[in-house]
Amino acid sequence: MKRFSKNFWTVIGMEFTERGSYYGVMSILSAYLVLSKAEGGLEFSKLSVGIIKSTITPLLYVLPIISGALADRYGYRKILFFSFVVMSLGYFFVGLSTSYPIVFASLLFMAIGAGFFKPIISGTIAHETDSENSSMGFGIYYWSINLGAFLFPLILVPFLKEKSYNLIFFTAAFLTGSLLFLNLFVFKEPEKPTSSKSLKQTMKEIVFVFADWRFVVMICIYSLFWICYFQMFDAMLWYVTEKMNMSAVNVEVNKILAHFMSNPTWHFDVEHITVVNAGAIIILQLLISVIVKNFKALPTIIGGVLIGSCGLLLIAITRNPWFFMLGLVIFSIGEMCAHPKFIAYIGEIAPAEKKALYLGYSSLYGVIGSLIAGFLGSGLYVFLIEKRDSPTLFWLVFVGIGLLCALGLYLFDTRMRVRQE
Q1: Which of 193, 145, 180 is closest to 17 using CA atoms?
Q2: CA nearest neighbour of 302 among 221, 197, 212
Q3: Are 329 and 272 in contact (CB under 8 A)?
Q4: Do the beta carbons of residue 154 and residue 75 sit within 8 Å?
């Protein structure tokens, strides 16, 4: 295997640190914003938090379309500099602020910085690898994302939260700000492409892609699954805080930890939802990829969505903490089955000369899914759980959305096969 360059490992370090900081914050954000001030939170309403999440999360999926073009035109280092400064300031002012407008504006800063950051790393990896080692290079890239999402909420967040929630945001600000030094003194600017896209050309590409009804319909249907996924960072956090008793899990984990330390006091909290999801992906993704490698893309996506829906169904029908954990793992398995095959399927339906273009816009599922998820999740949580005390019905709604996604994909597949025949 061909060795990787210093620049490759530099951007992997950036990705690990940035994603760890991001998922560390996201693992507790929706819970922190609604906690009472006595508990260290900001006491915002769940509906107002839903508005925040339905605003900031779509930016993470739509901004890379623009920032990738800007990076090719003006240079990766300049975009990274902008990204780290804006992101760091965003985290810092969230930790410093208590008023809704300032927190909202600060989170917008964070989202803009993160959105500009995302395509730079994958673009650099594409520059630093070739046909001999690109598969391994991108494998390390995706692994670093999940490793950051696993370790930061597992180790750093509980430690900081015990002292103050603000420290989580200040630490994220420090870590992302420190990446400026890597950018200035270690990162090497990749060669500029011989021709770079202008924003005008980017807009023309958007029009071209959206003129393909197959692509648009597929994105809209698949986004239903991601409405369910984004509840892991919103409604699921409130549910664990307010409705779940995780004592049985705490007792068993502390029995294991007692072999390595005296008087362990570990307890399952909201940040561990992210830990379970990322940990399951780290452990199982390779195995699942091997299992589904030779399966057709669209049926595998449908199967993954159904598996994810089964995970939510398990969470809906019981409050047993072990079944709750199992439900999270099953949902993660569904995600692991569906998402890689979704990317493969977009490549299949794209015109041969436009595959890269279509793959670049395939992340629009996240724009639609997250745009709806914040509003829908917070509204239903207040209506069904807080006012009617019906958590089972709440989760069954999202099971239904998952099943609707699977049905939509099946009908889409049927229509596509009929047209091909």
Answers
A1: 145
A2: 221
A3: no
A4: no
Read off the tokens for 120: 């730079």
Q: Cα 302 to chain center, whole Å?
A: 20
In 3D space, the residue among 71, 156, 171, 170 whose CA is nearest the CA of residue 121 turns out to be 71
Written in H, E and C, the secondary structure of the chain is CCCCCHHHHHHHHHHHHHHHHHHHHHCCHHHHHHCCHHHCCCCCCHHHHHHHHHHHHHHHHHHHHHHHHHHHHHCHHHHHHHHHHHHHHHHHHHHHCCCHHHHHHHHHHHHHHHHHHHHHHHHHHHHHCCCCCHHHHHHHHHHHHHHHHHHHHHHHHHHHHHHCHHHHHHHHHHHHHHHHHHHHHCCCCCCCCCCCCCHHHHHHHHHHHHCCHHHHHHHHHHHHHHHHHHHHHCHHHHHHHHHCCCHHHHHHHHHHHCCCCCCCCCCCCCHHHHHHHHHHHHHHHHHHHHHHCCCCHHHHHHHHHHHHHHHHHHHHHCCCHHHHHHHHHHHHHHHHHHHHHHHHHHHHHCCHHHHHHHHHHCCHHHHHHHHHHHHHHHHHHHHHHHCCCCHHHHHHHHHHHHHHHHHHHHHHHHHHHHHHC
The one-letter amino acid at 230: F
- Return the domain boundaries, the chain: 1-192, 198-421
Confidence of residue 54 (pLDDT cuts 50, 70, 90): very high
- Tell the CATH superfamily of the 1-192 domain: MFS general substrate transporter like domains (1.20.1250.20)
CATH architecture of 198-421: Up-down Bundle (1.20)
The pair of structure tokens assigned to 178 is: 């420190």
For 154-163, the pLDDT digits (tens) are 999 999 999 9
Neighbouring C-beta atoms of residue 138, cutoff 10 Å: 14
158 neighbors 271 (Cβ within 8 angstroms): yes
Q: Do domains 1-192 and 198-421 have the same CATH topology?
A: yes
Q: Extract the tokens encoding 95.
A: 């930790």
Q: Which two tokens stand for residue 259?
A: 């072999």
Q: What is the Cα–Cα distance from 15 to 269, expressed in whole angstroms?
A: 25
pLDDT-above-90 percentage for the chain: 75
Q: Are 299 and 281 in contact (CB under 8 A)?
A: no
Count of CB atoms situated within 10 Å of the CB of 250: 17
Given pLDDT bands bounded at 50, 70 and 90, which one contains residue 1?
very low
Q: How confident is the model at residue 94 (pLDDT cuts 50, 70, 90)?
A: very high
